[in-house]
Write a structure and sequence with these properties.
hydrolase; Rossmann fold; 2 domains; hydrolase activity, acting on acid halide bonds, in C-halide compounds; PGP-like_dom2; HAD-like_sf; DNA polymerase, domain 1; six-stranded parallel beta sheet; 9 helices
């Protein structure tokens, strides 16, 4: 089976940005508000069948969040955010979990809304690139997840059937998009995330990526 990992929040820890947002806004929780606004924008564009690079959306949302705290985000702040996004650390469970999956015979690729150059930098800087067979970006098809095209890109390029792939993500909208494209899904809660209540139940639900690996390996061994 092919494991298709989302990157931001699923593999990489966005909490590393809290000090940046604390310095800009005085409130580290502004990081979550910024990410939520960014995803809201991305989903609206996707539903409208429009497209902007994910990094451009991320930068555009920063001044709006700063303004809610009475602060001003400058172009330099936007550039710094972009650089910090390239240097996010992996969650502690990720390296060993992917190593276990590969040892058990699973293929491992990533699929992210970030452009490919950013994704490559992120995985390399987090020490994960040697563990990943291929890096896919929604930018390659000009449609952000959860549109079907990014998932279809992975399936077509890897030459696997939807039933032979599992999308692993900490975002309900990503799980919903992958399920609609026919993939199995593994939702990673990481303590605070929840599946979308109006969508179908994920194939697997896990606390972290290590938990996903344990469930997938057990299911594979039982076949």
């Amino acid at each position: 089976m092919l494991c298709v990992f989302d990157v931001n929040e699923t593999l990489l820890d966005l909490a590393a940005l809290d000090d940046f947002f604390a310095g800009l806004t005085g409130d580290p929780s502004a990081r979550r508000d910024w990410f939520d606004l960014m995803i809201h924008n991305a989903l609206a564009l996707t539903a409208a069948r429009s497209y902007q690079p994910f990094g451009k959306i991320a930068a555009a949302c920063l001044p709006a969040i700063a303004a809610t705290r009475g602060r001003t985000a400058t172009p330099e702040h936007q550039r710094e955010l972009g650089e910090r996004l390239r240097r996010l650390p992996a969650h502690p469970d990720v390296h060993e979990a992917i190593t276990r999956l590969r040892a058990a015979g699973f293929g491992v690729v990533t699929l992210t809304n970030s452009v490919a150059t950013v994704a490559e930098d992120q995985l390399r800087n987090a020490g994960l690139r040697p563990l990943v067979d291929a890096v896919y970006s929604a930018d390659q098809v000009g449609h952000l997840k959860p549109a079907p095209e990014p998932y279809q890109l992975v399936l077509a390029t890897e030459q696997v059937a939807p039933s032979d792939a599992v999308l692993i993500a900490a975002h309900g909208w990503d799980i919903t998009g992958a399920a609609a494209a026919g993939l199995a899904t593994a939702f990673v809660s990481r303590g605070r995330h929840r599946p979308l209540p109006a969508s179908g139940t994920p194939t697997f639900t896990a606390t972290d990526v290590d938990d996903v690996a344990t469930q997938l390996i057990a299911r594979h061994a039982g076949r």
